Each structure stands twice: as C-alpha cells, then as structure tokens.
Sequence to fold (219 residues):
Amino acid sequence: MFTKLPKWAEYGAFTLALIAGFVNAIGLLGFEHQAISHLSGSVTQIGVSALERPIVSVFLIALVGSFVVGSTITGVLISGESLKLGRHYDLVLLLEGVLLLISTSLLYEHISWGLCLASMACGLQNALVTTYSGAVIRTTHLTGIFTDLGLMLGSKIKGQEVNKRKFVIFSVIICGFLSGGVLGYLAFQRINVSALAIPAIGCLLLSFIYRIYRQKNKN
Fold:
C-alpha cells in the first residue's frame, strides 16, 4: 500500500500532522485545557466525571460525538480507498478550515462549545487520510504510529526486512505533529486562542492548492 502512494503524500502527511498538532496544542493551552485531536483521554474523562460532574461528561460526550460527525461527513464526501486526484479532498479541507475559523471566534469569546467544532474538524481530517491509507496512517494522533514503529523495530532486531517507505512516512508524521505543537505554543503565547486561526488558514490554503493542482492535471 505504501509503495503505491505518490511521493508528495509525505508532504501532505507532514502538513496535516502539523495542523493537527497545532490545533491540539491550542486546545491544551486554552482555558479548558482539553485535547482535541484524539479521543482516548476524553473518553476516560467521561467515565471519571460521570458521577461527580455530569455536566462535564455531557460536554465531553459532545466533543467525542463531534469528532465522529466530522468523520461521517468525510465518509459521505469521499468514496474509495486509494489516493485519487479527482476526489473531493479540497472540499473536506475547506470545511475543516471553516470549522476551525468558527471555533476560533467562539473560543475567543470563551465559549467552550467551540472545541466541539475543532474536534469535528479533526474528525474530518483524520477520516480524510484514512480513506486512502486503509486505516494505517493517522495524522491527528500518534498512538498507532508509535505502536507500528515498535513492531518494525522488533522485526529489525529479529533480522527481518522493514518497509522503509512506511518508516519514512511515520517519521514524517511524528515530526509534523511535534512541529505543530511547538508552533502552536509559540503562537498561543502571542495571540492566545486566536492562534487557532492559523491552522484554519492553512487548511483553506491546502484546499485552494489542491483544487488548482487537480484542475491543471485534468487537462
């Protein structure tokens, strides 16, 4: 599967991981201190707060549900399991950017529900990559990637061959997510939650670039 991905897939994976890392950093640094791009911690928090702080559980359930809604929208817009030029990746990226912009405006007003829109945006993005990677690549969280890298290391220790392209893509995603976290922190120190507008603009630019690329390669 990895050998079939075009070379520019690495650049896309890095950029999307950077965006997710940036968004997650703003969520963690903001007034709710809530992770956005992955759900394991949120689901655990639902159980922890269910009895003592049920209103918090309701908010967290909405956060998780928003991620699922985002993934559902991508599933409606994109069909197939291979990376194909004609598919509506630009529309998904456009929606992600718009959701992040609206989320920015809500969080600027200290409206916590803006995080749900950011979570929906991450669901859109994660499902976007899943449609062409067969659920092997994730750009909004790293647990599976680190697990796969551990398995690859185990295979290497046993003297078995490892998929070098797979290793490169996973390393690129980790670097992208980490870079997004660093940039998110730096931006938050300057403009607080308004920094969320930066990855939003990044998504809109990616959508525009992909649309132009698709139109040029149609001819």
User: Anything to note?
Assistant: The mean pLDDT is 87.
